[in-house]
Design a protein that fits this description.
Blueprint: E1 8-10, E2 13-16, H1 22-35, E3 56-60, E4 64-68, E5 71-75, H2 90-100, E6 108-114, E7 121-124, E8 136-142, E9 144-149, E10 159-163, E11 168-171, E12 180-186, E13 198-204
Antiparallel strand pairs: 1-2, 2-11, 3-6, 4-5, 6-13, 7-12, 8-11, 8-13, 9-10, 9-12
Amino acid sequence: MEKLDRLTVSEGVRIFPGLIDAPAQKVLIGEVAALFVQSPLYRPVMPGSGTPFRVEQTCFGPLGWVSDRSGYRYQPYHPVTGQEWATIPPALLTLWNELTGYPAPPECCLVNFYRGDQAKMGLHQDRDEPALDAPVLSLSLGDSALFRLGGSTRKGPTRSFRLNSGDGLIFGGPARLSFHGIDRLYPDTSRLIDGGGRINLTLRRVTRP
């Protein structure tokens, strides 16, 4: 595991340790929790097999990413409630504008809630978005996690980094289709979330502007 002592990890990948300070984290987690009323957390399943994810998910924004037996896709409504997704918090839109330089706002904020010893995310690519020229902005809240970053193939070499509450991560350009995942949580490393756990907020532009 490498220490986050530099912002540029590789071409197209930047990590921002402590991007969101402690007071701002408390405000943001409160806003996110309030939005769960309109867009509640649920547990998606894998295409085909129907195997449940090890994390709970929801989305904010005009479009939400969903996974079910029929496949992966973006849609404008929550798959359980049938309601439109809640609006992306303004603070997240501000971070997107300041950090990505992309000329259009994100259309999806995917929320992953990691909780428990088995909560993890296998290596995968974010490739369901036509706007692959737009970077992905990821923000960590709550318990620390071990993030794994690979290359453009699943079996290529990987590097691991510890992400802490308030850290930001961007990957785009030549790294936009890098495989990545979460190997494990470090329980009780944060008191931000009642009952523990980690919330990851991933901002994505879906359609080409």
